[in-house]
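Q: What structure does this chain adopt?
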Amino acid sequence: MFPIWANIRLLALEPHDLALTKLERSNDRDIHDVMHLAQAGLIVRETLIARFEKELEPYITGRTPTWNRTTLKMWVEACWGDSAE
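A:
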């Protein structure tokens, strides 16, 4: 893309990983971003849940360990209309 910058590598998060990075803060902008990813077909409910359970949830610490799971459930309902997991 930019041949004059041969030593630069651009990296980007995969859409499911991008969505999961927004889980902790979960403000209006984050929710809209995740809904847009879902509506555009860039994230899939089952993959999002599986990645959360396998790759994120085991490493969550803090005073409210259920915060992220509750937020994920809210996102699933908002994006796909039900909370079936």
